[in-house]
């Protein structure tokens, strides 16, 4: 009896703090978000000892008068919502009225604020600054002090009365890593703000609100990332999508470089992650993750942020629409972009690197001396030998004029696997198998979309044995087989025979192909929807029918391949997302050979 008591407010706050304040980075995030909600144009974050000793966030936002400043640290106090109606359509980053109270319950606080004078109140005596101190929930009195417009909140000795929590904190470097990550997210979402991050007196970032987003990305990440982004923008059905899509060359082994922002809030969302993954399908190898910065704007009423204490998850009222709009916009952009891999040369050659660079340059000079004598002053002019003229070789595959201007290019095959061909600006090295695979894959997709593949009867049907599971799989996928132009019929107990096979796969062995197809259908195919399964089958078919590495090609075969490459939709990647082509630009070559 009498066991249940009401917790005092400070206990309530400490418990709430457990939800949102796990480590210094959460404090940094909450304080920075408050600054943004207060309309700041400049935010300075100073950290000492990974945030254990001090976290200070100073802004030039609208500030608070003495009364508000003293209220701000009480629990459930907010200026951002007033009624339950406001919960639908939250346009500020904060709204729960818990952050300051939580932080103040687990650390020593000193906050100074000076409100910006409203124009209408324009009197002589502009309101001054006030200062308040709070020690783990113990609020001191408020008093005037001198300060600039805006607010500065200093948080000292986080968790100092909670040794268990404090012990949980990691090294200053690790904590700083988390802080930098939150700082980065907020910096990406608020490109127009001046923002500085300082650790132990050392400036880690100083970002200007005047720089454009690419410059900001270069400073926050690296120039390499910033230079390898493709811009995409679309506005449809209430959704504004702006994306900077990382080229496949800078892809990662995890999804840490996927930054998704919804109306300025960093979020993680499984529908959006899935849309991103699908958009890159075929442009990236399956185990790689793209770098992407995705900025979505949509009406506040179309989603709920009140589902998670740290507000990193949201609930879309129409998740399917969000998924399909994002997938459509990103995929269209990626398919319409040349994702050719650029050859990487050693960067500027200082004396330490000169040696290695010189060796590469020498080796390349040697290569060209052997393979193609260039007359002294004649740079990159096509020699008369071994040219291909796309409109000439295209007979049967294309009609003249389909590929635009006539191409007169030089090429050669090396190691029976790669084709070196001249390009507008430099030359390309092509993986013959990967490129041919891509071309066949696109051809197959086109034909299947138009109907079914044309097939030819086998002179002698080829028979093979099947397990019950395999028979079931074939029956379940009868429609797919029909589309592919593969005709199978029972030939005896547990035996089937192939009667017809697609013409376009003439180079593949029918038995071998059907064998792998059955594996795919029984194994992987079981979990895939029809479209993905078809895609997998076409992938496999393209791989089997394509020219192999190590296969000697005649000049006319190479010319064909190069001509087809010009027409392909996405010639730079094989269907599995690996590069087909590496480009060496003339400008880079000239630099390497020290001609410029
Ligand atoms: P919330 O952000 O959810 O409203 P907080 O506890 O973070 O709750 O902040 C409480 C209130 O204090 C805010 O609603 C805002 O009115 C005020 N406030 C907090 N930080 C600032 C700031 N940097 N500048 C001006 N007002 C602030
Ligand atoms: Mg807040």
Q: Can you put this structure into words, describing what you see?
A:
With 596 residues, this protein is of the alpha+beta class. 36% of the residues lie in helices and 23% in strands. The protein is built from 19 helices and 25 strands. Strands 1, 2, 3, 4, 5, 6, 7, 8 and 9 form a nine-stranded mixed β-sheet that branches. It has a six-stranded mixed β-sheet with strand order 17-25-21-20-19-18. A hairpin with a 2-residue loop joins strand 10 (229-236) and strand 11 (239-246). Helix 1 crosses helix 4 (99-105) and helix 2 (24-37) runs parallel beside helix 6. The longest helix has 21 residues, at 351-371. The N and C termini lie far apart (90 Å). Residues 349-353, 372-385 and 389-406 have low confidence and may be disordered. Bound molecules: adenosine-5'-diphosphate and magnesium ion (MG). Magnesium ion (MG) binds next to helix 2.
């Amino acid at each position: 009896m009498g066991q249940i008591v009401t917790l005092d407010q400070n206990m309530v706050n400490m418990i709430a703090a457990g939800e949102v304040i796990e480590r210094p980075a959460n404090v940094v995030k909450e304080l920075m978000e408050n600054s943004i909600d207060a309309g700041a144009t400049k935010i300075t974050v100073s950290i000492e000892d990974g945030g254990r000793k001090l976290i200070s966030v100073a802004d030039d936002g609208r500030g608070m008068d003495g009364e508000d400043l003293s209220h701000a640290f009480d629990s459930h106090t907010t200026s951002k919502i007033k009624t339950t109606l406001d919960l639908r359509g939250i346009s500020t980053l904060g709204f729960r009225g818990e952050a300051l109270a939580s932080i103040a319950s687990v650390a020593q606080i000193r906050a100074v604020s000076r409100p910006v004078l409203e124009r209408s109140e324009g009197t002589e005596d502009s309101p001054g600054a006030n200062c308040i101190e709070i020690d783990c929930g113990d609020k001191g009195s408020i008093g005037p002090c001198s300060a600039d417009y805006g607010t500065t909140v200093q948080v000292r000795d986080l968790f100092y009365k909670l040794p268990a929590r404090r012990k949980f904190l990691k090294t200053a470097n690790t904590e700083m890593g988390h802080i930098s990550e939150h700082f980065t997210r907020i910096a990406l979402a608020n490109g127009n703000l001046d923002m500085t991050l300082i650790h132990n007196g050392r400036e880690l970032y100083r970002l200007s609100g005047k720089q454009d987003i690419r410059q900001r990305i270069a400073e926050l990440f690296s120039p390499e990332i910033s230079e390898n982004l493709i811009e995409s923008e679309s506005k449809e059905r209430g959704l504004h999508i702006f994306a900077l899509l990382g080229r496949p060359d800078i892809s990662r082994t995890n999804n840490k470089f996927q930054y998704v922002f919804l109306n300025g809030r960093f979020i993680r969302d499984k529908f959006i992650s899935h849309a991103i993954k699908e958009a890159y399908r075929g442009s990236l190898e399956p185990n790689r993750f793209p770098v992407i910065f995705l900025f979505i704007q949509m009406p506040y009423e179309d989603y709920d942020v009140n589902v998670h204490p740290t507000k990193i998850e949201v609930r879309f009222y129409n998740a399917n629409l969000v998924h399909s709009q994002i997938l459509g916009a990103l995929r269209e952009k990626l398919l319409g972009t040349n994702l050719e891999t650029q050859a990487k040369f050693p960067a500027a050659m200082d004396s330490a690197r000169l040696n290695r660079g010189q060796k590469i340059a020498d080796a390349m000079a040697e290569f060209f001396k052997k393979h193609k004598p260039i007359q002294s002053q004649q740079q990159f002019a096509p020699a008369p030998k071994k040219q291909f003229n796309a409109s000439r070789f295209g007979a049967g595959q294309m009609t003249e004029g389909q590929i635009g201007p006539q191409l007169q290019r030089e090429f050669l095959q090396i190691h029976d696997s790669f084709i070196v061909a001249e390009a507008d600006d430099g030359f390309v090295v092509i993986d013959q198998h990967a490129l041919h695979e891509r071309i066949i894959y696109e051809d197959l997709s086109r034909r299947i979309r138009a109907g079914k593949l044309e097939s030819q009867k086998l002179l002698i049907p080829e028979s093979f044995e099947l397990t019950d599971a395999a028979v079931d799989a074939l029956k379940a996928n009868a429609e797919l087989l029909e589309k592919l132009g593969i005709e199978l019929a029972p030939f005896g107990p547990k035996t089937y025979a192939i009667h017809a096979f697609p013409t376009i796969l003439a180079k593949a062995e029918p038995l071998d192909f059907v064998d792998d197809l059955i594996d795919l259908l029984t194994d992987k195919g079981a979990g895939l929807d029809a479209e993905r399964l078809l895609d997998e089958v076409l992938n496999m078919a393209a791989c089997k029918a394509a020219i192999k590495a190590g296969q000697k090609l005649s000049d006319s075969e190479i010319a064909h391949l190069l001509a087809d490459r010009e027409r392909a939709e996405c010639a730079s990647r094989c269907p599995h997302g690996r590069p087909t082509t590496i480009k060496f630009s003339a400008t880079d070559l000239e630099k390497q050979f020290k001609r410029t």
